[in-house]
Prior knowledge:
The chain has one domain (about 1-180). About 20% of the residues lie in helices and about 55% in strands. The protein is built from three helices and nine strands, in the order H-E-E-H-E-E-E-E-H-E-E-E. The chain has a six-stranded antiparallel beta sheet with strand order 6-5-4-3-8-9. Strands 1-2-7 form a three-stranded antiparallel beta sheet. The longest helix has 21 residues, at about 1-20. About 20% of the residues are buried.
Amino acid sequence: MKRRVKKMIAFGAFALASTLTSTISAAEIVDLVPVIRGEGILVSFRVEEAFDEDIVQAIETGLEVSFRYNVELRRVRRAWFDEKFASRQIQTTVAYDNLTKRYSLTREIDGEIDATELVDNTDAMRRFMTSFESLLLFDVSFMEPNEEFYLRANGVMRDRNVLLLIPWDVGADWREAHFTYLP
């Protein structure tokens, strides 16, 4: 009886480990750049290796696929935890129409539609889903001159549940870009 329980535990651990390792993504956020212009912070970044075989197959079959990006603005504090000033969520969605052979694309920022496009080119679809140029995401009115801040961004390419119970997001890990606010 004890031997059977040990085998079941060993099998369960192996199944969990193999499931977790199969969900590791190669996606990576690169070129995260904050630019202060006027009264706002413009944010640019892109994601490499966001499209794995499962995602490409889902898109080609006509399923709607969404990527979610979280962007945070934080102030560096020397003797304490860093302070989060603001956070924004960007979601890009693609739906492929097999009849017209076009991709319908939508970008939302905090649930409000920011941009939509209809393209027939796979490269244009991938750029829309993973590249962001000069998005006005944050206000600078609360920032004090000469203070250190940083942006944090991550991406979720797929939401999954491991063993139907444990939420496990697959995507790009957190990336940071530090800067000093000089008005």
